[in-house]
Structure formats: structure tokens, C-alpha cells
Amino acid sequence: MVKRHLLLAVLSALSLNACVLGPDYHRPAVETADAWQSVGGTAYRAAGERWWELYGDPTLNELVHEGLKNNQDIQLAIERVNEAEAQAGYTRSDNAPNINGVANANRTQHSEVGATPMPSGTPRVQNNYDLRLQASYEIDFFGKYRRANEAARAELLAAEAAQRTVKLALTNQIVRQYFALLAADSQETVLRRTLAARQETLELDSQRFSAGITSEFYLLQTQAEVSAAQAQLAQAIQMRVQTETGLLFLLGRSPREVMHANVARGAPTKPTVVWVPEGLPSDILLHRPDLNEAEQKLIAANARIGSVRAAVFPAISLTSYLGTESAQVSDLFSGPAGIFQFGVDLAQPIFQAGRTQYAARVTEARYQQALANYKKVVASAFYDVRTALATQEGARLTLQAHTERVNALTQAHQQATARLEGGVANRLEVLDTERQLLQAQLSQIDAERAQRAAVADLFKALGGGWEVSSAKPTT
User: Fold this and answer.
1) pLDDT confidence of residue 316
2) Is residue 418 part of a domain?
3) How many structural domains is the chain composed of?
4) CA–CA separation, 67 vs 411, rounded Å?
5) Are 132 and 339 in contact (CB under 8 A)?
6) Is 117 a domain residue?
7) How far is CA 141 from the centre of its chain?
8) In 218-240, which positions are buried (b, 16+ CB within 10 angstroms) versus exposed (e)?
9) What is the pTM of this model?
10) Contact (Cβ atoms closer than 8 angstroms) between residue 19 and residue 142
11) What does the pLDDT look like over 237-291, one tens digit per residue?
12) How far apart are CA 411 and CA 422, in angstroms?
């Protein structure tokens, strides 16, 4: 009968968990455009989560996979998620009953001449054995623990979003560094070829000068051009080594592997232009992980307000124990040895020198900070996309112009060489055209790198890729 009343009391207390203090979360209203305006042309099928496959380079795909597996920033993000998951479980356990098993055995000897004489016939030495099950439970009447759980869940989701942010940033960096390395290789190849041609010209001019066919002026001019090519080549090699080392670091290679500097190169397809589909909803930015992270932190800050406000109200706790107690071990499990207790505790804060009020102000200020940060991230997302779209279009046009310039200077160099051989032009005209062609070739390679990097930056700004099928744009 007693146990039945105890159970009913507990169930009644649990039924009181209906009041939740603090504001419920509502996503802040932010004025945004309904859809993106196409920069030009129509859209074609863009890559989804594995957006880097759009470049059509299997080697790049393998390097990105390696980086996602081994990069230490990714490992740190994973452990932060594990920490947040454990913290959420820890917070969730705060609202669960605490049950402890207690066993106690003691032997006591009492004084025969103490201030309080022992009753006649009472043994001086006494044994006591106690075995009980203790339980306590604080009723979440005002939602303190439920708001804390809500905040912990939001912080877990924020940690997971932060992990996706790290992943997106890492893939962007690997792609950019990879194409920077290919550009450095190409520039080094062009400079080696140019240096070889100028050294061949220098050798020929030296022979002509020795034979008295050409002047010392032309010989010195050729020597200067060789030295210039050597200087450019040295700088290109230095840049290639630095770029390669940076890529190895992003891939999470060991220090020994970094020193060996062995990075595979692939053969990407021609520069790819990504067009944002006409009418693509701007809500696609809601998938950006940094925006998800900012919103989850806002949800957590909102929930903390209710958790702190609940601390102003009384804390109602249920305590009980059930067990046995006897002076002899043999009697410990007998009927007369049974003991139990059930109680209700109520604690009401009366004077805390404003501690609770200050804590509430802290949580409200943190909510306002999280709100401001959320709005900032939303605005930053639209800024990033618009900037990335403009950068990609500018990079495409720049590459197109440099390509046309290289084609024109290639023909001009051929004509200048033919004019020199025909005795119509002089060496300075050929050298000047050759310098312009070399610089145009180097600029074209860098423009191709910038165009590919602009594609990667667009996907980063959009928080990844999307799936849509239509015709390719006309460029």
C-alpha cells in the first residue's frame, strides 16, 4: 500500500512538467531576394555535394578525398562534434532520476562513563548493517532542464554545421591550391622552353660575333634576355615549391611526405563556367553550413534565456530510499529490518545579491549577440554569392582576352621572325615581340587558374552545389 502511494506521488509530480519558461524560437525575418538573377545564358547540370568533380579531373578527386580523410582541421571538427554530442547527453541526464545503492556496515563501542549513560542491558559494543536504494528527482516544473536540453541539442547541430563549414573550406582550398600548382608547372615549362630558346640564340650570336657577322650590342642584348629568363625561372620554381608544399599540408601528409613533395598531377578538362540557373531560389543559401551554425547558436542562446529564468522559481525535488537495516547480518533481509522514506523538498531562492537577474541579463545579451551574428552571416552569404558571380564572369572574360592576346602575339612573333630572316626587321623588334608573347603566355596560365578558382569560390559561396538540368550556356 505504501509503495502504491509512493508511485502515485511520483507520477503526479512528473505530470507537473508542463510549464516551460522563456521565449519559443522563431526564425528572424530577413529581407532577401526571392531568386538569383542569371548573369548570362542558361543553366546546365551543376555538381551536387561533390562539386569538385565538375572539373573532370580524377586526380583532383583523389586528392580531395585524401584531404577530407587526413586533414587535421577536419579531425578537430570531428572531435568538437563528439564533444558537443557528449555534452548534450550530459545535459539530458540532468533531468533524469539519480539512483544510488548504499551499503554500510559499522561496529561501535559506547562509553560507560559518558555524559549520557547507556540504558541498562544495552551492549557496549554494537553492530549495524544498512543496505538501501536511494533515489532523488528534481521536478522540471518550469522547464529549466528542457530549455537546457534544447540549447544543448542546438549546440550539437551547430558543431555539426561547423564541421561542414570546415569541410567546404578545405575542399575549396585544395581545389584552388591544386590548380595553382598546375599553373606553376605550366609557367615553369614555358619559362624553361623560353630559356632554352634564348640560350640557343645566345650560342648562335656568340658564334656570329666571333665571326664578325653581328655586333657586340646584339650579343649583350641576348645575354640580358637569357639572364632575365633565368631570373623568371628561379622565381617560378620557388612559387611551384611553395604551392606544392601548401597543398601537401592541406592533404594532411606527414612531415616526411611533405619533404619528399610527391603530388600527383592530373589533366583537367577545359575551364568550366558555372551558371546560376535563372530563378534558382535564394533559399539555397539556407544550406550554407555557416548559416546553419549561426542559426543553431541563436536557437541555443534563445533556449538559455528560459533555462536561466526558471532558476528564479522554486526547485521541487523528490527524495526517497528503500532498504533494510539490522544489527545482525542474518537479520538484514528479514521483514522487520525493512526501512523506507519518501520526502518532498522545496527550495526557493530568497537573496542572492542579484545573481539570477544578472545571469538573465547575460543570456539575453548573448541572444542579441547571436541574433546580430546571424543577420551578419545572412548578409555575408548574399555578398559572397554576388561577389563570386561577378568574379567568375570577370575571370572568364579575362581568360578569353588573354587567350586572344596570346594567339595574336604568336602570329606577330612568327611574322617578326620571318621579317628578320628576310632582312626587313631588326633584332629588337623580334625581342620585343618575344617578351610580350612570354608575358602573355604567363598571364594566360594565371587567368586560367583564376577562372578555375572562381568556380570553386562560387560553390563555396553557395554552400556546395545543386542539381538542375538544362542546356549549356552559349559563351
Assistant:
1) 81
2) yes
3) 1
4) 43
5) yes
6) no
7) 38
8) bbeebeebbeebeebbeebeebb
9) 0.82
10) yes
11) 999 999 999 999 999 988 888 887 788 888 877 556 666 655 566 677 777 899 9
12) 16
Q: Which of 312, 313, 277, 290 is nearest to 467 (CA)?
A: 277
Domain of residue 287, residue span: 35-97+143-313+358-461
pLDDT band at 47 (very low <50, low <70, confident <90, very high): low
Residues 6+ apart with CB under 8 A from 48: 464, 465, 466, 467
Instruction: Give the amino acid at 405.
Output: R
Amino acid at 336: P
Identify residue 80 by its one-letter amino acid code.
R
Residue 422 belongs to domain with CATH number? 1.20.1600.10
Which residue in the block uniquely carries the three cell numbers 616526411? 256
Ramachandran angles phi, psi of 348, nearest 5°: -115, 120
Considering only 306-310, 364-368, 427-431, which range has the smallest mean pLDDT? Answer: 427-431
Annotate the chain with three-state secondary structure: CHHHHHHHHHHHHHCCCCCCCCCCCCCCCCCCCCECCCCCCCCCCCCCCCHHHHHCCHHHHHHHHHHHHHCHHHHHHHHHHHHHHHHHHHHHHCCCCEEEEEEEEEEEECCCCCCCCCCCCCCCEEEEEEEEEEEEEEECCCCHHHHHHHHHHHHHHHHHHHHHHHHHHHHHHHHHHHHHHHHHHHHHHHHHHHHHHHHHHHHHHHHHHHCCCCCHHHHHHHHHHHHHHHHHHHHHHHHHHHHHHHHHHHCCCCHHHHHHCCCCCCCCCCCCCCCCCCCCEHHHHHHCHHHHHHHHHHHHHHHHHHHHHHHHCCEEEEEEEEEEEECCHHHCCCHHHEEEEEEEEEECCCCCCCHHHHHHHHHHHHHHHHHHHHHHHHHHHHHHHHHHHHHHHHHHHHHHHHHHHHHHHHHHHHHHHHHHHCCCCCHHHHHHHHHHHHHHHHHHHHHHHHHHHHHHHHHHHCCCCCCCCCCCCCC
Residue 28 lies in a domain: no
- Angle at which helix 58-70 crosses helix 72-93, to 10 degrees, equals 50
- Which amino acid appears at position 315 of this protein? A
**CB-based contacts of 462, cutoff 8 Å, min separation 6:** 276, 284, 285, 288, 385, 388
Model pLDDT for residues 356-385, shown as the tens digit of each residue: 888 889 999 999 999 999 999 988 988 888
Distance CA 262, CA 132 (A): 67
DSSP strand pairing (315-326 vs 338-347): antiparallel
Per the document, the length of the chain is 475
Assigned domain for 11 exists: no
